Each structure stands twice: as C-alpha cells, then as structure tokens.
Amino acid sequence: MQEPLFDLSRHRVCVILNPGSGSKDDRAVARAIEDALKPRCAGFALRQTARGSDIVAVARGAVAEGFEVIVAAGGDGTQSAVAGALAGTDAIMGVLPGGTFNYFARGLGVGEEIPEALDSIGHARVARVDIGQIENLVFLNNVSLGAYPHILKTRESIYRRWGRSRLAAYWSVLVALRRLRRPMTLTATVNGESRDYTTALVFVARSAYQLDSFGLDGADAIRDGKFAVLIAKARQPLPLLRSAFRLAFGFSAKDSDFDMIVTDDLTIVTPRKRMLIAHDGEKTMMASPLHLKVWHGGLRVLLPAEAPAETKDRAA
C-alpha cells in the first residue's frame, strides 16, 4: 500500500552536493536547488563536499544533526555513498541527478535533469527500495570484477585530460580493453552449490533500468528482489571487446554473450587475495572471498508520486 504524499514543509532537509559530478556550473546548480527547496521545508542546509571521500561522513553528520531528509545531488557514485550512510536508518533520501549516466535516478523515475528532479521531490511519496551489499559496502546499480574496474581507472585519466563526457567514457573502454591480457578464474557459490568460471568480466546488476537499457534479460529478476549476475563468456580481448563495451555503457547487448545467475545471495572466491572492484562508477580494493546480498527494503527514498513499475512493488 502506498503512503500518502510526503509533506516537505514538516521536515528538515540537507542537500549534499558533489562538485566533482558532471560538468555543470556548480554555483548555478546550488542556487537552483536552494531556491526550489528552501522555501518549502522546515529547515534547509546545502553542503558541498571538497572530496568524494567526504560524502559518507557529511551524510552521517546530517543525520546526527536531525535532518530527516538527505538529498544527494550528483552522479551514481554520490548517490551510492549517501545511500550507504542512510541505509538501515529512518532518514529519507532524495535524489538529484548530476552525473554522466544517472542510472539510479532514471530507474526511480525522478528524471535526468535537476529541475525535473526538484519538481519530483516537491510532489513525492516515501518508499522502501532494495539495495545491494558487497561485504559492508552498499551499491545501487552494479558491482563488477575483471575488465570493468580497469576501464574505470583508464576513464579517470581520460577525464582529467579531456573532461567528463559520454564520448570520453566510451573511449576509455577501447583503451582499457586494448591492454587486457588475461582472464580471471573464480568460483561462484549460490545456495551451497559452487561453479567455476574463467572469464574477463563479471557484472552483478541491481538496476532493472540499466539492464533494460542494455537489452539484456534479468530486469524482471531485479524487480523481484534478486541480483542478475552476468558472466562474460569471452575470455580474450578481441571477442570481449564487443560484449564489455555494450555492457559497460548501455548499448544493446546480447544474452548469448553472458552466462546469468539469478540470486539474492552470492559468494565469489578468486585465487587472488585482493581484487579491484567497481561499484556504481567507483572502485575499491577488496579481499576474497566476496559476499554479496540484496538488502531488502534497506533504503527509504523519495519517489515521484507516480513512480515507475520497478519501484511500485517496493513501496512502504
């Protein structure tokens, strides 16, 4: 059963703006956010983070100060960091897209631009949504091992030189995969059953919107509260190029390129003691074995009054 419309005027709101996301004028964005929200809520603060690594601490500080609504303004990495700070608490998360792809915002239906998303916050309801966890790290869209984390490393250097854009992101895939030499081996365990794989890319999806945009199966499983775990069949650079490029950046992919596991609880073991893991556009070194699970209803989020189908069944 859906909750009634959320009354913003009775709540204190803190907006966390990550200036490192996207390429828009941060001062103009901050001014637009303040003009739209400050007159409509019981209390308002806007805090810009000097570094992306500060986002979690700023979000936790806002909750400790009594702000009931924490709005993340930035790309998927910013959204994921704020969600990690709020998961399991009574705080409510608002979403303002400000990155390159904005899969989380688009999946929730809040829009792809700041003005549209601000309108949705002003006419919203509260819902609980499922989120992913890998060890103690929260993620919203995906986690990946193998080629994709190295694509992110390459992307950062290209962004520093040429600026943020989708074209630069696509180019980073070509550059990174050209350097790929060896596939990885791993063991995936689900419900006590284990299977060995040799692959160059593992993609654990939690965004139905993202899989739909890729043209891949698995979105319905995500809507049912599961992961869609895609394991690339290609082991070498040239055949991997097509499937990884499509999967990483939203071109139509092919189900025949991947094996798929559907589960809400998964353990991955690799021979290497530590692996570079990509999560929602960020990257972290983590130790094997890696335990992933779906945290059902783990996050309270402001959704548009008319939310997309993938979130309606998760409304609290």
From TrEMBL:
<protein>
    <submittedName>
        <fullName>Diacylglycerol kinase family protein</fullName>
    </submittedName>
</protein>
<dbReference type="InterPro" id="IPR017438">
    <property type="entry name" value="ATP-NAD_kinase_N"/>
</dbReference>
<dbReference type="InterPro" id="IPR045540">
    <property type="entry name" value="YegS/DAGK_C"/>
</dbReference>
<keyword id="KW-0067">ATP-binding</keyword>
<keyword id="KW-0808">Transferase</keyword>
<keyword id="KW-0418">Kinase</keyword>
<dbReference type="InterPro" id="IPR050187">
    <property type="entry name" value="Lipid_Phosphate_FormReg"/>
</dbReference>
<feature type="domain" description="DAGKc">
    <location>
        <begin position="8"/>
        <end position="137"/>
    </location>
</feature>
<keyword id="KW-0547">Nucleotide-binding</keyword>
<dbReference type="GO" id="GO:0016301">
    <property type="term" value="F:kinase activity"/>
</dbReference>
<dbReference type="InterPro" id="IPR001206">
    <property type="entry name" value="Diacylglycerol_kinase_cat_dom"/>
</dbReference>
<dbReference type="Pfam" id="PF19279">
    <property type="entry name" value="YegS_C"/>
</dbReference>
<dbReference type="InterPro" id="IPR016064">
    <property type="entry name" value="NAD/diacylglycerol_kinase_sf"/>
</dbReference>
<dbReference type="Pfam" id="PF00781">
    <property type="entry name" value="DAGK_cat"/>
</dbReference>
